Structure prediction request, 67 residues.
Amino acid sequence: MPKKKLQYHAVFEPAEEGGYNVSFPQFPGCVTFGRTFEETKKKAQEVLELWLEELKINLFSSEHCWQ
Prediction:
């Protein structure tokens, strides 16, 4: 079965100290920052991939399985 491509909204905001902050409204706490917009986009993709991988692990771990 082919994998679905999912899209998530990312909110980019200028940081007071320079650079950019990015967050994902669907995933509270999933945030990162970068010095440039390009760096922030790359880091946003990385943090979202890690967040989703952790979510998948937690959903399918034995302590969360139905008995």
